[in-house]
Design goal:
By secondary structure, the protein is an alpha+beta fold. The protein contains six helices and five strands, in the order H-E-E-E-E-H-H-H-E-H-H. One of its GO terms (cellular component) is cytoplasm.
Length: 135
């Protein structure tokens, strides 16, 4: 790899629930590769997950401009798809700082901080209590 190609790799990290996605953008033909698999097969050919993952590119009209390489771990497919979206949006801000305004107005640069609440002692789940018996 020459020095010219190193400058053309843009990266961003996205998180959602327990999922972490490290996204790398490389100028190319628009293919999506997640953990070494084609994006369509990794996301189980779900049009919803594919749409969510590529929202930042679609919004900016850059669908066929960059190849997306992702290393996703933890959580489920929903969390990973949202993590990919955030990582992709952050990488696109590095590509061109003018993209930030468009992505921010659509809410794509906000990290969704909702995570699973911990279980408390004396309860069955985080908030579910055992049935109360008066007598």
């Amino acid at each position: 790899m020459t020095n010219n190609n190193i400058n053309l790799i843009y990266s961003g990290t996205g998180r959602r629930k327990k999922s972490i996605a490290r996204v790398r953008l490389i100028p190319g033909s628009g293919k999506l590769v997640i953990n070494g698999l084609p994006g369509e097969s990794y996301l189980q050919f779900s049009p919803n997950y594919l749409r969510v993952s590529c929202t930042p590119l679609t919004l900016l009209g850059l669908n066929k401009e960059y190849d997306i390489y992702v290393k996703a771990e933890g959580g489920g497919l929903t969390g990973q798809a949202d993590a990919i979206r955030l990582g992709l949006a952050r990488a696109l801000c590095i590509v061109n700082p003018e993209n930030r305004l468009t992505l921010k107005s659509e809410g794509l640069l906000s990290r969704d901080s909702r995570i699973k609440e911990r279980k408390k002692y004396g309860l069955r789940k985080a908030r579910k209590a055992p049935q109360y018996s008066k007598r």
